[in-house]
């Protein structure tokens, strides 16, 4: 009913709007007396100190949350992090031993590929930490430890609030590793939890773009394809934006690392092709920002219709943006938590304009329990 959907036409929009709460609930209780605690974890600090390599295994959107985490965890801990699709991991003889930490991310906790990856990792004696949104599901039951995301039940087949909650949980794991093992960036690590705590408000503020994005979506509904570009943590954001559009709007979509453009994908650019670009903050790494500006310039010059997601007040992008979506300023590693929001709305609303069932896209199930 409309009441269950919080007055929205579909659950996904309600769930998009629940993201501030999903983040706050996931972070709650994990910072006690100045320390990160992974209270549900059952991994001792000594276990975290023994780790010499991290594997993140997951599928779909959960995999994209892992790609985001790789940037943060490697930076804070200097541990090598490999992020791999669960369906590929197990069949290629990955190098694992008792000092490997495998982080298995799954909203449902029932995804067959991820479960098999967990089993394989445990057979190799690796320690497995599950990040899961469903209490008592199979993946946490078979893991050594679990950190729950508290996003609440997600009805829409397309993951939204659980994606943001996964990113937050992954960051808690990274911070806990940094705390247990020491870090080259103690000030940044000490600050980061507080920056995470400010994210529910930043996401709430970001929801202000919803009406603008819905209108844009209606204009783009007849497009044949849409491309998504990003760099650094904006790259997984681009992959996730494209996945959302494929699964909901049945539209061809691809996410690219912006630096790869000239190695092939730029050949796809033609007059009027919508290209969505997730810009990094101009206050972050200047080189990243400058490189993306030049990428947008290149594609705009070739006739693409540029849709730019940029930090509020970033005037440098304006000449290159046919359509500008402004999101609040947040630290670089946290940007996916705000820049993903307009992409979720875009996919949902394009799907709706095309007459599709946003909550139950064709051919898809909420949890995939076959390999
Ligand atoms: C996301 O929108 C998808 N429905 C899908 O990619 C999903 O994230 C994937 O199947 C993994 O599911 P899980 O998190 O329950 O393991």
UniProtKB/TrEMBL annotation:
<keyword id="KW-0677">Repeat</keyword>
<feature type="domain" description="SIS">
    <location>
        <begin position="44"/>
        <end position="183"/>
    </location>
</feature>
<protein>
    <recommendedName>
        <fullName>Glutamine--fructose-6-phosphate aminotransferase [isomerizing]</fullName>
        <ecNumber>2.6.1.16</ecNumber>
    </recommendedName>
</protein>
<comment type="function">
    <text>Catalyzes the first step in hexosamine metabolism, converting fructose-6P into glucosamine-6P using glutamine as a nitrogen source.</text>
</comment>
<dbReference type="GO" id="GO:0004360">
    <property type="term" value="F:glutamine-fructose-6-phosphate transaminase (isomerizing) activity"/>
</dbReference>
<comment type="subunit">
    <text>Homodimer.</text>
</comment>
<feature type="active site" description="For Fru-6P isomerization activity">
    <location>
        <position position="366"/>
    </location>
</feature>
<keyword id="KW-0963">Cytoplasm</keyword>
<keyword id="KW-0808">Transferase</keyword>
<keyword id="KW-0032">Aminotransferase</keyword>
<feature type="domain" description="SIS">
    <location>
        <begin position="216"/>
        <end position="361"/>
    </location>
</feature>
<keyword id="KW-0315">Glutamine amidotransferase</keyword>
